Amino acid sequence: MSFEAWLAFSVASIFLLIIPGPTVLMVVSYSLSQGKRAAAASVCGVMLGDALAITAALAGLGAVLATSAGLFQILKYIGAAYLIYLGVKMWRSTGGVASTVDMPSVPAQQIFRDTLLVTVFNPKGILFFVAFLPQFVDPARPTLMQFLILGTTFVVLGGINVLFWISMSGGLRKMIKGPGALKHFHKVGGTGLLGAGIFTALSGRTG
User: Fold this and answer.
1) Coil/strand/helix, residue 42
2) In Å, how far are 8, 65, 66 from 147, measured between CA atoms?
3) Has this prediction a pTM greater than 0.90?
4) Which of 137, 145, 129 has its CA nearest to residue 6?
5) How far apart are CA 83 and CA 130, in angstroms?
6) Contact by Cβ (8 Å): 47, 159
């Protein structure tokens, strides 16, 4: 794999990662409600989730998902159900940023678990890695090392992307003054997660 191919992969990954999705919604919500202490758990959860998805893809699970409708549907419904559960939980949450006394504290383990599961329980993500990574691999060179480099690059960029959204939400957090403002954001974010879960459950195998 040439440096040009790696650079093209990195640029493509950045554009793909920066598009907001369920993981970004959750990261931003936790950052708004929990502040900087949610950063490390969110970054670790997303990076481990990406690493597991890439490992599963390289281990052949992507090929199985592409040919087994039953397994694909099972994983899809698990991911959709978890998104819906988190959406309902976020939608019903309360608490204001301005008042740290009234703001419920979420354990780092829970933040890590939620971001990890939302990232890894996405069969389309595994299929994406199967279809995306090989486009930048030189078949004339050892493929394992190339996949390792590309996978590591994506995981690191995913962590940087999480830090970017946490930084962006940090500025938004300073602008939220009333205790009802975060509650409204939670409803918006929860609705987004609910919509993502419902869309995932109803979407076709190739949608």
Assistant:
1) helix
2) 15, 19, 20
3) no
4) 137
5) 23
6) yes
